[in-house]
What we know:
This protein is 30% helix and 47% strand. By secondary structure, the chain is α+β, with helices and mostly antiparallel strands. The protein has one domain. The mean pLDDT is 83.
Amino acid sequence: MITIPAGSGSFSTVRYTGPFDWDKIQSYIFKEFSDWDVAEKVHKHKKSGVGIEKEIEWEFTIKATDLLLYKVGMSFHVWDWVQKEVVVDGKKRKMDYGRVEFKMNWSIQADWQGKYTQGIAAKLFNFYIYHLKKKDLIVTVADPFKYRMLHVQEQIKKLLGQTGYNPEGFKSE
Length: 173
């Protein structure tokens, strides 16, 4: 497999401490990637002194064409995860509370079937990808996918309370 030019990256780590709704985050992610294949790479669940420590890693893949494969990796690590009653819009509600770390990376792989891995075919394919079609792949494939992944990260930030709504609106009891 060959990663296309400008076809991979990772975004800054998102760290958050406070109330969050894990069910909303999880349902958003699986709705956003509903047509994709998903593999849970890591799922750790430990009880610690204050609450629960949970570590989850998912890998989403989709075969866009016979030539291109999109991959997205997400990892959540939550410490001191407990249920707390909070007041949201004047109503008491049980919500998750803890320290969250979220990481996301993505890549676009060419020749995911391994057709052009040896001999002259591999050299011609590399020349095609890295010289003839480089700008076209960056503009029409890599950039739109990168911006879609930035949008996904921004939505997860909103669900965590970092943007979108005011985390001070939550009053712990």
